Amino acid sequence: MYDTEFLDIPALRSVRGSVRLPGSKSISNRVLLLAALCEGRTVVHDLLDSDDTRVMLDALRALGCGVQVDGSRATIDGLGNRPRQPQAELFLGNAGTAMRPLTAALAVLGGDYQLRGIPRMHERPIGDLVDALRALGCTIDYLGTPGYPPLRIGQPAVRLDQPIGVRGDVSSQFLTALLLALPLAASQPGRRDVVIEVVGELISRPYVEITLQLLARFGVQVQREGWSRFTIPQGSRYRSPGDIHVEADASSASYFIAAGAISEPGRGPNGLKIEGVGEQSIQGDIRFVDAARAMGAEIDSGPNWLQVRRGAWPLKAIDLDCNHIPDAAMTLAAMALYADGPSTLRNIASWRVKETDRIAAMATELRKLGAQVEEGTDFIRVTPPDSTTGWRAASLHTYDDHRMAMCGSLAAFNPARLPVRIQDPRCVGKTFPDYFETLFAIAEPSTPVPVLCVDGPTASGKGTLAAAVAHRLGYHYLDSGALYRLTGLAARQAQLEPEPVNEAEIAALARQLPVQFRADRVWLAGEEVTEQIRSEAAGMDASRVSALPSVREALLNLQHSFARLPGLVADGRDMGTQIFPFAPLKVFLTADAAQRADRRHKQLISKGISANIDSLRADLAARDARDSSRSVAPLQPAQDALLLDNSQLSVEESVDRVLGWWQARQPF
Ligand SMILES: O=C(O)C1=C[C@@H](OP(=O)(O)O)[C@@H](O)[C@H](O)C1
Ligand SMILES: C=C(OP(=O)(O)O)C(=O)O
């Protein structure tokens, strides 16, 4: 997951290959709650791991459930035959699928519970649900603004003699919450059927369908008359299915369906395969497939998979009632940027009370990209930018809304080949923490991946600077010096002295170097060698192998392969001059020799390695002389490099300076 301040996505051309998507949020959180309300054990497979499911799992733990999570499998021991904590304070983030159903379940069970969330959750309505529960005899107090969380729940005196009315026109989650909670009341001896009547038009109906399907999996068959009357038969009681699988998230699939539909046709005919969800999904958002087809996408489907490719181009504008796909409809607004005319998405008033006011947010951000947007209380109309002159590079605000971020990424496929900046990319953690990584793994850029080079002499602090800059930008990091150190180590392990006589053999090793960089750790052939390659001896070997021309050439391809989406910060001695000569920013870092010797001395001492400052200074001078006078790729600044003398700068100051230069080159 990217937890950077922003993420710059280079212009993208296409997606290809296959993606496997994480589990459905709506199914995951329903199944977790249902498992918690059962007797005995339920094993949930392919559970989503995200902010929304984490708050649900934490809440269930706090209530006394047995919860064990092992990768994507969760084992839940339900409260049916375990003592429930009578008192708890639950933090539910911004998860509507946790706040609304837990409110209902705990209000029916009774106790002393406080339910809170992030500030936005305290602006998301819950009054219709609270009214319904109060009419049923539940005790619920508002701890802040009436009609909104936070809430305090007390002991109920449940009366089931009359149908329970609930409004359905603000959120379907209120009805879902009652449907999940009331089997607890229906199971009491002597109780009668529980009847729920929806007042007003029910929105987002397919989500209620998911609820009914999952209730059935847990042994409760609800009878429904149209979308207005639901009966939970007397004596209904939860029974764990034992094992249950979660489908991949159909709303998450919408971003990849859209990417497939707007992707330039590649060399192969097959487009993008999406695994984990198919057209038979129980999730209503799968009907996004129909809308995408109406816009021109070609989509095939089989059991638990979809295959998408571009069909009509430009896409065909649509005018659609989107009430049945409230979440995936946002993706249509992004697809509308590529349509042949204005597209109108109707009946989406609920967008205004979700993670943010999504109609207003979408209108503001699409306008930044060059679209004309009209908004009304319950619709949005998007007129795409002119495909040749209308697009603008934009820095998109995401309003702590995962879907704004994921939709925004689709703007990177613009024909003007402009990058797009996504602010606060971390917000995708609500439902799809690795969204951007997943996208980058299958996307092809339409312009070269941006590379930022940091070259400089030994102990100038370039590794620290480059790694910090990479971290701030969310870019990959190449420590090219480590490649030479690794080659030196590989040579030693193969009993080869790093000498010209062994050049061909060492070059062969370098070509196949089984190296992996993960965070700030380095592996060679599966063995972690982070510390080993940092020794002074390994540094000397590195300098010696790096003077061998065929070794340098062998490592060239390897180094190029590090330039992957979304970008690369490469540190070394010849990044800007030899390896990435077209890099848009090259920094040549210097510091006076005394400073560098002093830093290296402190570094070694802090690792418990004894060192003599005078001999360090002499070694540095010898290496500088050798590096700058070697015939192949001597250590020199590229002509277009910016010089940075960091003798008097802190690491943060150097990082800010480089980021300032980088930012000055961006179009945002
Ligand atoms: O029940 C559910 O799982 C959901 C219902 C929908 O909300 P509304 O019913 O408020 O539209 C949807 O937007 C939300 O992401 C998940
Ligand atoms: C509206 C959404 O979430 P929630 O489940 O919090 O309502 C969403 O995921 O788009």
TrEMBL record:
Record: residues binding phosphoenolpyruvate: K25, G96, R124, Q173, R358, R403, K430
The entry's keywords: Amino-acid biosynthesis, Aromatic amino acid biosynthesis, ATP-binding, Cytoplasm, Kinase, Nucleotide-binding, Transferase
Substrates-to-products reaction catalysed: 3-phosphoshikimate + phosphoenolpyruvate = 5-O-(1-carboxyvinyl)-3-phosphoshikimate + phosphate; CMP + ATP = CDP + ADP; dCMP + ATP = dCDP + ADP
Pfam families in the record: Cytidylate_kin, EPSP_synthase
Chief place of localization: cytoplasm
Biological or metabolic pathway of the protein: Metabolic intermediate biosynthesis; chorismate biosynthesis; chorismate from D-erythrose 4-phosphate and phosphoenolpyruvate: step 6/7
Alphabetical list of Gene3D superfamilies matching this protein: Enolpyruvate transferase domain (3.65.10.10), P-loop containing nucleotide triphosphate hydrolases (3.40.50.300)
Residues annotated to bind 3-phosphoshikimate: K25, S26, R30, S171, S172, Q173, S204, D327, K354
Residue numbers binding ATP: G456, P457, T458, A459, S460, G461, K462, G463, T464
Catalytic site positions: D327
Residue ranges annotated for the Enolpyruvate transferase domain, each copy included: 14-439
Keyword Amino-acid biosynthesis: yes
Localization: Cytoplasm
Record-annotated Cytidylate kinase domain positions: 453-659
GO-annotated molecular function: 3-phosphoshikimate 1-carboxyvinyltransferase activity; kinase activity
Listed CDD domains: CMPK, EPSP_synthase
Assigned EC number: 2.5.1.19, 2.7.4.25
Matches recorded under PANTHER family: AROM/DEHYDROQUINATE SYNTHASE, PENTAFUNCTIONAL AROM POLYPEPTIDE
Function in brief: Catalyzes the transfer of the enolpyruvyl moiety of phosphoenolpyruvate (PEP) to the 5-hydroxyl of shikimate-3-phosphate (S3P) to produce enolpyruvyl shikimate-3-phosphate and inorganic phosphate.
Quaternary structure note: Monomer.
Protein name per the record: Multifunctional fusion protein
Organism (species): Ottowia flava
